[in-house]
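Shipment paperwork, digital attachment
Item: protein structure file
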Amino acid sequence: MPVFFISQIRETSIDQVVIKSAKKLKKKDNPAFDIMQEVWKRKKSNGLSQFQDYQFEEYEKVEVDLANIDSAFTQRKIFNKLDFVFKYADTLDNANQLALPIFFNETLYKNWGKNDPIKKEKREILANKSSGFSDNDIVANTAKNLYKDINIYDNLLNFFNIGFTSPIARDGFSVYDYQLLGEEFINGTDAYRIRYSPKRKEVLSIFGVIYIAKETYAVVSATIKSSKNINVNFVNNFYNELEYDNPNDSIFLPKRNYQEIQLSIFGKKEKAKSIVAKKTTIFSDYLFNQNINDTIFVNKLSSLSDKDFQKNDQFWLDNRKEQLSKTEENVYQMMEELQNVPKFKKAVKVYEVLATGYYNAFKAIDIGDLYSTFGYNKDEGFRLRLGARTYFSPNDTWRAAFYTAYGFRDHQVKYGAEFRKMFNRDNRFTIGLGTRRDVMQLGAQLTTDEGIMTRSFASSGVLNSGDNFFLSSVNQTSAFAAIDPFKNFTLRLDATSQSIKSANLEKFSLDYFKNNEVFSDLNDSKLVFSITARPGAKFSQYGVDRYEHSTLASTIVLKYSQGLEGVFNSDFNYSKLQLYYFQPILLKSFGRLILNVEAGKNFNTVPLALQNVIPGNQSYGLIPNTFALLNYYEFVADQYATFHAEHHFNGKIFSYFPLIKKLKLREVIFYRTAVGSLKESSILINSSNLLLQAPNKPYYEYGFGIENIGFGNIRILRLDFNWRGNYLENPTANKFGIKFGFQYYF
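Attachment content:
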């Protein structure tokens, strides 16, 4: 007899915080204000930070459903030979609307932490169970990447890297209206029930109910729901339930967190066909001050698909922190059946191709990156690229990759190949070898990626303004070794030998003087030592490659390069120091600020091919950390500093205009500046046909952008309007320019 069930979208939970209009009270007349004042006075601290050390278990389950399927939809050809899945559907109040589970995953973690004398943290997988995907990391991590850790006591709540003022923040009364609904006995505690709702519903906002303990004024529970028609790409709504334990008057401990997100490309209508992702996290078995040995924090990394974590049913019955619903229990059975259906396998493969850019053509061989297949520049003309990589599993400790490319104007074959091997998964000790012969735009980045397989957009962008003949032909061989001695902290050493010359000698010269002779080809051998810190970044470990979760983590890179004259006929001895800093900042309802700072210095006189080029952008596309109105090689510097500031208002300004706000557009403002100097000797060493100058007086650009352009839930286009602030007397100066691009974020 078939088992009938349906995955229900917790509509009862969501509905309980739907608010009706209520009379707004002044602060002095609002009893909720008096209660919230007591909450602020006695604001609790997370107990995990109050003890010398701590440990706890964390149980997590993630479910993804295809929602709002009607009877007509089930009859489509897409479900041919898949109709058996509807035996897992049951009748709801509205029998014409179904929700079908397509993914389910359970994971049990063990967490350790130490606050004194140095803060240390570790999270280790104890067990994992997935719904039929043998290599489920891509699917599972995609689902998990939708969620952020939410603490109601934080002044700012992060949803989709968008900042929302917490309902218990001190400035909450400037953002929300509060209404005391009465008292309720919840989780064994007498609590006040307070409803909050946004003062302005046109902006990105949330509403819900908070339960405040009468005796301690601690938050016992809270619900958070997005406002109707929330202006977030692909998101129809989201809903959170938070529960806390309050062991004493000064601390709280997370107890349970339920999160639900409804996503759709078909629009914001309630019954639109959509994907519903649900995540439940339960925290338990807290222990404090156990004198945890430092050896426990040795970095032991793991992946969801490791077979060591696959436990039997009895283990999960004994260790699962929350009993599964009938729906959840049967997802496993349904997914196992789906694994044997070719059509389903094809659908999974399509998703993997779109997510990774690679197509698995043969056993352990992926073709790609497919997104780099086509390109264009003035020297090569139309460019066709074909590449491949080895791929046995997400946990591969080694990877080989190659590509070959052909330019239909220069009739030259280019190629690149790379091999990387990771010897230790805990500290990620990795070595690599690579070589390439290719045409590249060297003036597109300051702090460059030393990887062989990387290629800047400027090297092969299809749409460009003006003639870009400033490309170089590079023949390069390199080797590297890297290690992570600490979490999110990487040390890397690169050894590179390369020859550089102009890709078009008639249009662009890299000629230089040495020993009273003029040379066109430059030989360079160098060692590059770099330190990269990513505090706050989160990764899923895949072996030699890894998946990075979307966070607001900063990036700090310090690089030292040493030229080795005479090694492999290298022409120059030089030293270079570079710094890169990236920082996104949430500013509550005012949006998100993104800062980029770069600085560097050449300590020796070097020719143009080894100089610091302030990166221009002659394409019509948006390229991060470049100057929209600079041409390639317009500014060159021995020493430099650049600053980029970009603020995303998330539609806050447009929300004040009745007609414009309906378009759900978002506003961006930006400012860019660069300053540097160039020694006389650095000018005289070059025999180039370019006029070399540095931005001795700070060069700057400014402008605004409109993003979130599109229709329905597909709003991925951005337009930028750029103005040049100075150096307008330069012969090729661009005073104004429009750039566009696609942004695939919420």
